[in-house]
Amino acid sequence: MSRKNSFIFRVLQVVAWIIFVGLSIEAGGLIVNFIFSIYNPGMVQHLYQKLDLSAMYTQSRWAFFGIYSFILVIAFYKAYMFYIVTVLVSRFDLAKPFSEFVADHIRKISYYTFFIGLISYIARQVAKTLTHHGYNVEDLDQFWADSQAFILMAAVIYIIATIFSKGVELQTENELTV
């Protein structure tokens, strides 16, 4: 492993941690917004992302809780997926990359990526349905705009996980024959 690749890997570790912290802050901010939008809707305009669904709350509580549940689930799973990424890059051995631990974590990342894409797609379809019933959900597109990209990314990551699993098998066979 060259020094340049080792340096790039260290930078990527830092970037993964920064993204994880950012996504955790976003999930926490959304939870705070959710609580304030129920108990004190007047404060929402001063909170994180100014996500004010108080009009939806007064119009229909089922729609409010449904949409906010989608937002919270997506935010939580994005943060959790990057937690798995940070654990992976923290324990990843560049000298011996093919291990069962790495293959399992890459596979988990693909599952969570697919789940985020699927939930985002369902949430977007529900939001479109709510638009037809007179709800204003235009501000919510930012939470599920990339659903198809997540699904495609999940497929690519799953292929990489399969390659790593095969690499682990080959490495184990080579170690047994030597």
From TrEMBL:
The chain crosses the membrane at residues 12-39, 62-89, 109-127, 147-164. It holds the Pfam family DUF2975. It comes from the Bacteria. Keywords: Membrane, Transmembrane, Transmembrane helix. InterPro entries: DUF2975 (IPR021354). This is DUF2975 domain-containing protein.
